[in-house]
């Protein structure tokens, strides 16, 4: 077992305005096509030998005298076990353990709304300071990537988990980010956001479902994950327009995502207009 240290902050916050891009002629929403995929980052054609990310110092074994806590996760009540001193690194679990201080039959925490795969990643992070696929840094190219050894050669493909709440897939890193917010683990939030930025080949429907999930499980003050999705949709607006998925989601409504997207698009157009009028 291992302990972790806090990750370094690695990502600048998104501005309220989306990234600039040249305007393009708008096409009709009626030009639907089958499910399309978004490339959020082009993988490097040639890879140099990477080094492991300094996400944590050399881990040490947990206190063997620490009590074992049982965690019951999800509707299927899948059981996990963890050392209390490791689990208590998350303020949420520390409080839950303190509430059972006088419990004689062993401490147990129930997480009926959590997904086992997501909690497994959270627990791995608490022990090791990272979760699979591991984040590594390529010094030669000065860029971050995900470890191929953890993903059977598909490090930058779409990684999703089935969420029982929405009855469909969401991006795994988005689900981990939201759970990290719930458990008060800001360093894990930053790590999950960093990994999500390395994803590519994600379907439009998965992006929109994950954006909805992010809006439902983060506060309105969140300036990281929400802004990530707004910028991603705006950058890939031509693909979303042709897919028809965005139109269907907007007609469905029920999320603040679409008003925020409207504001971000207006800001984006204002930036383009202002740039065109400025003297050169």
Model description:
α4 runs antiparallel to α5, α6 runs antiparallel to α7 and α7 crosses α10. The N terminus is likely disordered. This protein has a 3-stranded antiparallel beta sheet, with no helix packed on it. It has a 3-stranded mixed beta sheet with strand order 4-3-5. A two-stranded antiparallel sheet has the order 1-10. It is elongated and about 70 Å long. With 280 residues, the chain is an alpha+beta fold. It has one domain: 2-Layer Sandwich (Potassium Channel Kv1.1, Chain A), CATH 3.30.710.10. The protein contains 10 helices and 10 strands.
Write the SSE topology.
Elements: E1 37-38, E2 51-52, E3 68-73, E4 78-83, H1 84-87, H2 91-98, E5 108-111, H3 116-128, E6 135-138, E7 143-146, E8 160-163, E9 168-171, H4 172-182, H5 186-196, E10 202-203, H6 204-216, H7 225-235, H8 237-243, H9 245-252, H10 257-277
Parallel strand pairs: 3-5
Antiparallel strand pairs: 1-10, 2-6, 3-4, 6-7, 8-9
Biased composition (Low complexity): 43-61
Region (Disordered): 1-61
Biased composition (Basic residues): 17-27
Q: How many domains make up the coordinates?
A: 1
Mean pLDDT figure: 77
Main sheet characteristics = 3 strands, antiparallel
Task: Specify the CATH class.
Answer: Alpha Beta
Tally of individual helices: 10
For the termini, the CA-CA separation is 60 Å
Radius of gyration: 21 Å
Task: Estimate the strand proportion.
Answer: 5-15%
Describe the global form.
elongated
Strand order in the largest sheet: 2-6-7
Q: Give the total of beta strands.
A: 10
Gross CATH architecture: 2-Layer Sandwich
Which structural class matches the secondary elements? alpha+beta
Task: State the fourth-level CATH superfamily.
Answer: Potassium Channel Kv1.1, Chain A
Residue share in helix: 25-40%
InterPro entries: BTB/POZ_dom, SKP1/BTB/POZ_sf
Biased composition (Basic residues): 17-27
Protein name: BTB domain-containing protein
Domain BTB: 67-135
């Amino acid at each position: 077992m291992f302990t972790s240290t806090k990750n370094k902050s690695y990502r600048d916050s998104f501005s309220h305005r989306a990234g600039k891009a040249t305007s393009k002629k708008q096409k009709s929403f009626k030009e639907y096509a089958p499910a399309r995929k978004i490339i959020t980052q082009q993988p490097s054609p040639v890879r140099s030998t990477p080094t492991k990310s300094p996400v944590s110092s050399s881990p040490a074994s947990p206190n063997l005298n620490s009590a074992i806590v049982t965690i019951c996760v999800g509707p299927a009540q899948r059981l996990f076990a963890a050392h209390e001193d490791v689990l208590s690194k998350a303020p949420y679990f520390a409080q839950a353990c303190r509430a059972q201080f006088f419990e004689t039959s062993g401490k147990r925490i129930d997480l009926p709304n959590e997904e086992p795969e997501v909690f497994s990643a959270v627990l791995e992070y608490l022990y090791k300071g990272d979760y699979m696929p591991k984040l590594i840094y390529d010094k030669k190219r000065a860029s971050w990537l995900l470890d191929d050894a953890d993903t059977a050669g598909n490090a930058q493909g779409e990684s999703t988990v089935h969420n029982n709440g929405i009855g469909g897939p969401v991006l795994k890193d988005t689900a981990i980010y939201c759970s990290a917010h719930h458990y008060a683990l800001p360093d894990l939030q930053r790590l999950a956001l960093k990994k999500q930025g390395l994803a590519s080949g994600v379907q439009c429907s998965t992006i929109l479902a994950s954006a909805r999930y992010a809006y439902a499980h983060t506060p309105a003050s969140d300036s990281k994950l929400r802004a990530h999705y707004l910028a991603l949709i705006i950058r890939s607006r031509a693909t979303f327009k042709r897919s028809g998925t965005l139109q269907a989601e907007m007609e469905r409504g029920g999320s603040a995502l679409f008003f925020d997207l409207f504001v971000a698009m207006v800001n984006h157009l204002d930036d383009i207009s202002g740039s065109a009028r400025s003297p050169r």
